[in-house]
C-alpha cells in the first residue's frame, strides 16, 4: 500500500464508518481496526500517519469498559481521541471533530498526503493480487451485479486468463442481463467466461412452489450446486474471488458492536471445495466500488445499476412461478426501466421494478372480455434499505408506462402503482 493511512480504533463508537468516510473524502485513506490492536499489528499496516481512538455507546463489553493498550502511546504516531474519557492523548474531542478540525489533524499534525484515489487503489490492488495469487488460478461467481462485476474487472486486469468467471443464468435474470455479462466480460474484456444456462433446471425445481422462503431456499441451494459442479470441472483452482465490500465486514460485527447481519457472498460452498479467498474490494464503501468500476472502464449501466436481489425475478413473480408470468414480469420490468431511463428517474430513484401477482383479472381486449395479469409498479427511495419512502411519480409518466406495458405485453391488462412505505411493507413483495 503506497497510500498514507489514518487508523481508527473502534472503542464502541457507532460512527466509525462516518469518521472513515470523513477522512477518505479528504483524499486520505483510513481503516477501522479493533481497540485491542497491538503495536506489532499496527506496524504491519503500512504508512500509518495517525491514529484516532473512537469511543461511543458500545464501550462496555462483558461488564468492562474497553481501552487501548498503553504501549500504543509510545509509538510516536500522532493521535487524537473522540468520546473516550480514559484517553491519554494531547487532543481529546467529546464529539465528532468538524471537517476543519479533522483536516488540521490529518494534514497539519499527521502530515498525510491526499493520495487516496481510485487510480492509486487499482494500481495497488493489481500488485497485491499478483503477489497473493502468483501463477495460480482464481474462480469467481459473476452474477453481473456491481460488486462481482468490479471484482471481475480488477482480477482480469491483474491476472487475465488465470481468472475463470462462472456466470450462472438461473432463468430469473432481467431482460438482456446475461447477454450483457457475456458481451462485457466474454467479448470486450476477453475473460475466461463459463456461461451456464440453468434456466430449465431452476424452473423445474421451482414448479408449484408458492412459499417465498421455500423459493429462496431452492434458488440459493441450486445456485451452489450448479456453481460447485462447474468448479469441479476446472483443474488447479486454488483461489476464490469474492465481492465482499467494507459494509459487509462491518455489518458482520466487530469486537464491540453486535452483528447486524452476517454476510456470505457465495455462502455455504461445500467444505471439500477448499479455496483461499481473494477479496480486493474488502476495504471499499459502495460508492467507492462504483468509482473503482468506472476507473476500470466498466459501462455506466453496470456500475450504477440499482440493487437487485440474489433470487432475482423469482421473488417478484409472486407465488408459484410460471413461465408465462415470468415472461410478463421480465418484459414489463424492461419497459419500466426503459421509461425511467428516458425521463431521468433512473438517476433519482433508488430502486424500481415491477411485480406480477399470481391471479388474473377481467379486462377488455379487441372488444372482447379477456383475462389478464396485473402488473404492480414499485419505486422507492431509501438510504439503508431498512426504511423506504415511495417516489411520487408524475401521473403522465405512470400513464405512459401503463399504456406501453398493456400494449407490448399482451398477457397484462392492468397496471397499478404501489404506494406503501417500509415499514409497514417491505421493499420486495416476498
Ligand atoms: P426488503 O424486501 O427486505 O428488501 O425490504 C431490502 C433490500 O434487499 C433486497 N433484497 C435482497 N437482496 N437477496 C438479496 O441479495 C435477497 O434474498 C433479497 N431480498 C431482498 C431488496 O431488493 C431491497 O433492495
Compact summary:
By secondary structure, the protein is of the alpha/beta class. It has three domains: 105 residues, Class I glutamine amidotransferase (GATase) domain (Rossmann fold), CATH 3.40.50.880; 186 residues, Rossmann fold, CATH 3.40.50; 96 residues, GMP Synthetase, Chain A, domain 3, CATH 3.30.300.10. The chain is built from 14 helices and 17 strands.
Explained architecture:
37% of the residues lie in helices and 21% in strands. It folds into three domains: 5-109, Rossmann fold; 118-303, 3-Layer(aba) Sandwich (Rossmann fold), CATH 3.40.50; 322-417, GMP Synthetase, Chain A, domain 3. The longest helix has 22 residues, at 212-233. By secondary structure, the chain is of the alpha/beta class. It starts with a strand and ends in a 13-residue tail after the last strand. The protein has helices at residues 16-24, 39-44, 99-109, 118-133, 146-159, 177-188, 199-206, 212-233, 246-251, 286-295, 300-303, 323-343, 345-348, 395-408; strands at residues 5-11, 29-34, 48-55, 60-61, 64-65, 79-82, 91-93, 137-141, 163-169, 192-197, 237-241, 276-278, 351-355, 360-365, 368-381, 389-390, 412-417. Strand 15 and strand 16 (389-390) form a beta hairpin. The strands form four sheets. The protein has a five-stranded parallel beta sheet with strand order 2-1-3-6-7, covered by helices on one side. The relative contact order is 0.10. The protein has 14 helices and 17 strands. The structure holds xanthosine-5'-monophosphate.
